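[step 3/7] fold_predict: job queued, chain A
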Amino acid sequence: MDDYPLLNAFLTMMYLFLWVLWFFLLFKVITDIFQDHSLNGWAKAAWVIFVILLPYVGVLVYLIARGRGMGRREAKQAEDREAAFRQYVRQAARPEGEAGSGGGHVSDLAKLAELKERGHLSQEEYDKAKTKLLA
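[step 4/7] structure written:
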């Protein structure tokens, strides 16, 4: 360890960090290229070839040319994911009997009582339907 000074260890760690950071940025740019729906297939292919053949220049040019759009697309995707999550939570929190048309057990019981009052259901049919609904 005597022949490897502390400054060289620091520089090695810094180079390793910059190398990992570079790959993160490269993958982020390639992911953005494929997730951008405004680009057609040829434009995506050209950007990927440019980024792979000239990685440093390609990524820097991509960030300069389309960097602002990257942020907007990322924000839009986050909003879409949040909206989908909220919709899922609303759907999952809905009572079991309220599957699609809204209502639930209370509204179904009210409908049964109304049918019984109008004379469309007998007391026996009402009791069976009520028991089935509450089971």
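[step 5/7] annotate
The mean pLDDT is 85.
The chain has five helices and no strands.
exit 0
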